[in-house]
Amino acid sequence: MGRKNGVANVIRAALEYNNSEARRWRVSVEMVQACRPQDRPPKRLLIKACGQNLPGFTDDTYPQTWKECIQPMTTPDLVVQDQPGLQPAGGIPQIVNDFSIQIATVNGSGSQSANNVLLRSIFRMGVPVSGKNLFPSNIAGLPTWYTIRVSKDGWVARKTDIDVLIAMNAETAQQDVQSMRPGAAVIYDQSLNLDQVRKDLTYYPVPFDQLAASTGADAKIRKLVKNMVYVGVAAQLLAIDMDWVEKTVRKQFAKKVKAAELNLKAVRAGFDYAASSLTKQDPFVVAPMSATQGKIIIEGNEATAMGAMFAGVTVVTWYPITPSSSVVEDLIDYMKEYRVEPDGKASFAIVQAEDELSAVGMVLGAGWAGARSMTATSGPGISLMAEFAGLGYYAEIPGVIFDVQRTGPSTGLPTRTCQGDLTFIAGLSHGDTKHVMLLPGSVKECFEFATEAFNIAEQMQTPIFVLSDLDLGMNNWMSEPFEYPEKPINRGKVLDAKQLKELGGFARYKDVDGDAIPYRTLPGTDHPAAAYFTRGSGHNEKAQYTERPDDYENNMLRLARKFETAKTLVPKPILEGKGRETIGIIAFGSSHWAVIESRDQLQRESKLGTDYLRIRAYPFTQEIHDFVAQHERVYVVEQNRDGQMLNLLKVDLDPTQVVKLRSVRHFNGLPIDARSITTVIAEQEGAAK
Amino acid sequence: MSTTPATPQPKTNRIGLQILDYRGGKTTLCAGCGHNAISERITEAFYEMGIQPERVMKMSGIGCSSKSPAYFMSRSFSFNSVHGRMPSVATGALLANKTMRSIGISGDGDTASIGMGQFVHLLRRNIPMIYIIEDNGVYGLTKGQFSATADIGSKLKSGVINDLPAIDTCALAIQMGATFVGRSFSGDKKQLSAMLKAAIAHRGTVMLDVISPCVTFNDHEGSTKSYKFMQGHEEPVAEVGFVSHFEDIAVEYDHDTTVDVQLHDGSHLRLRKLHEDYDPTDKVRAMNLLMEAHAKDEVLTGVFYVDTQKPDFTSMLNMVDDPLATLAPERVRPGRDVLAQIMAEHS
Ligand SMILES: Cc1ncc(C[n+]2csc(CCOP(=O)(O)OP(=O)(O)O)c2C)c(N)n1
Ligand code: SF4
Ligand SMILES: [Mg+2]
């Protein structure tokens, strides 16, 4: 895991070793071997970083052929700043609020609440955190890793290095330990004998079964309780405030007082054991800050669900698929709570359809008949929706389709993240079809864009696709609290019976206002001229069947103009930086968090200033053209193999601008990390020399 | 003495509309196509039942049959969707506005091949709509290939013989949960009219398989969906009579030979048995009759099954009385307090 980012990790580890007073880091043979050959760092760079002392390296590690394919590199600028660190009397230098914890468990073992308690306790101490779940496509029995990043600087992207491992899964424990960076700490079940695996880590053996049993929990739930024991151990070793742990447990089990007490007992058993039997030997500690006040922690899918509810969604259809299911599952909970009227009746319908064809068909049927309708899916579902997507575009029917992206092609890695549906959705369906896409980059935007998507769908009378991804949708993110939508609900151009009476009639597909958006009526409108014929076959302004070349062409041209109108409605990109640098970065969606951290690294380590434009929607607005025009080189950062955003930009940009684009891609299924971006940009900018 | 001659009042239905108000556009289907006759019967049925055309949604998939909503009731809202997917679109539309009536027109290809998945789920949900299969045993619009309702041994014009069993959409509909299931023939004006009117009076999925000969591709010798074949093999299981709730006539009937079913709007379906074992409230008997008829090469027609008790899908969802489509913003956007509460839960 995580070691495939090769060059970045090894060089950094080496340099950190070189720069660190405490000399905690060592570059191991394993680390180098874990890199793809083309990523391996040059031997002399390692020697420079580590001195002549390269423990364990043989000529096998550095075969002749491999040596030859390496470009000579010198790295005067590539200096990784180490933490100043507190130095308690006689102790090891501390690393405060800047490390990551990985909890390795078995899928289905109920570790989620324990991990959540850890995450939220640190958060409530005022320290920025993020939580990422790396889980298998399986219900029970396969390994799962949950990573909590603690970052005083507020970085929340994935970090490849793990500092503290909680090894609860016997099956992966050996490998988990092998993949740690030197100097890391390992909390593990003592029966696993992990301290025999490597000598360069700090080990904390814990008799988990014994401690779980001591809580008096019966055998059936002991497995769950065991998880809370590691919370206690970690709290003690990492100085996590037990007051907050306790409050968090109580809040989490608010409706189950007995469960709360049992879990707290387990936490305390772990805490007490650590206090009495373990000696702190690693540098990682949490200390209170005040950087999270007023903030919330939430998953993107839940935020999306909330956004849809506040948008006033009325018809929801779905066919379960990871990682989108929780959008609708959370929505069901919210709607039952907040959208049932005093007489017990629902102001909504939620239907589990027989497949995604049907799910999107219902969305369009409902949108046509006037409901605010939506469905949520992921890649395979999007593929099935293609034909209907074209109907929605051509017959001009509103609807919102949430795509929580996962890796493809085909089934791909169902539980891993990707930004790989971009080009497919942009033109989803045959013929000249074009779709509006919204690209939320944060949980807050998941909420806001969900709300806004329904307005845009009805204003534009077209399906709107909202693309998030597994990382954003299913992981825990800190956020400012969401703001109540101030914009009134906009139902678009709908004529009622009274208006029809005044007008005497209407032409469904006529551009009356010059914005290419026609007027529509809803079924049931009580006027003899209200009805029209909706079809996916050729139609003229009056919605009559036509095969006339001019009718077809005029309608298609109007649809193209309508797509131009979309540019006035979609969220504009956001510029970070003064706009005066020569290097620009373009990114979107969840990549944002790694990009902002990477900009900081580029600035600090390589003195490379960058401007950054975050795209938030397609079609592209003028700001995006301007941004590229104002920079000499523009790095397009994205999480897919083929540079899909870059390709969309290529289509739209002036050819003289296209040559400025460079691509930074990350697509191993794990969320993108800052270092992967920094390495590529620094190298291409010659800053790595 | 009056000097102005009395102009004859145009005939109107119970809501004051003329038959003209129910007409559609001019058909572009082949002259003699069974689908045209069905459009006529639908027009009359809605006129005679006095249904406001603006309260009706006409749904369809793709095919000659699916084009036909353009040829009846132009004042109704129409949605000609994609091939085989009308059920989902119709379902969505009814979720948005459950106060509307819905009639779906499909073909045997549109339903029994590409659309099978959505079709069975529509039946299973008992979506409150009339679903008509204009069944000609071929894909008319793509020039006459066999469909999945073609009988074993039936012959294409080119001489190709169908060697796969036909799907009996009526048996399927009964098994899957439709609450009004029947078969008719586009050429049987009386029976089809009565069945359509009863369909309008029913609430729940009405599945009517209407044999509708394709004069261009499947009306020849050797076809089992031709006019000639139907004239020789149609075997009504019961005589279908319909007494509407607004007709103030007490029709006498023989309780021993006739099954009376009171429909949702108060109208009555009167089914005079022509078969010993006929009982339209019994699924098993209905299925048996269909199976026996297959064995005898008969095309059984009539109402096979009616269930007026099973709740339809929109009622099961316990939605508010008003259409979801047009609920006022304050009914669909929770207040600031709700957001504040949710935010507090996540802090
Ligand atoms: C996805 C898709 N595949 C194929 C077609 C081509 N197609 C149009 S109509 C049709 C068959 C229609 O047969 P049926 O439903 O029996 O209608 P009929 O024309 O016989 O009334 C086919 C295959 C299509 N429109 N869409
Ligand atoms: S081809 Fe057949 S089904 Fe199509 S319109 Fe002509 S007769 Fe009717
Ligand atoms: Mg057909």
Question: How does the SSE layout of this entry go?
Answer:
The complex is a heterodimer of chains A (689) and B (347).
Chain A: H1 7-19, H2 29-34, H3 43-50, H4 64-68, E1 95-96, E2 98-106, H5 112-124, E3 129-134, E4 143-151, E5 164-167, H6 170-178, E6 185-189, E7 202-206, H7 208-213, H8 219-238, H9 242-252, H10 257-277, E8 284-285, E9 296-299, H11 300-311, E10 315-318, H12 325-338, E11 349-352, H13 356-368, E12 373-377, H14 379-384, H15 386-395, E13 399-405, H16 422-426, E14 436-438, H17 443-460, E15 463-469, H18 470-474, E16 476-479, H19 497-503, E17 533-535, H20 549-566, E18 574-576, E19 583-588, H21 592-606, E20 611-615, E21 617-618, H22 622-629, E22 633-638, H23 644-652, H24 655-658, E23 661-665, H25 674-684
Helix pairs in contact in A: 1-3, 5-8, 5-9, 8-10, 9-10, 11-12, 11-17, 13-15, 21-25
Chain B: H1 34-49, E1 56-60, H2 64-67, E2 77-80, H3 86-96, E3 101-107, H4 108-112, H5 116-125, E4 130-135, E5 138-139, E6 145-146, H6 169-176, E7 180-185, H7 189-201, E8 206-211, H8 227-233, E9 234-236, E10 238-243, E11 258-262, E12 268-273, H9 283-295, E13 299-306, H10 313-316, H11 329-332, H12 336-345
Helix pairs in contact in B: 1-7, 3-5, 5-6, 6-9
The complex binds thiamine diphosphate, iron/sulfur cluster and magnesium ion.
Iron/sulfur cluster is lined by residues 29-30, 33, 35, 64, 136, 140-141, 214-217 of chain B.
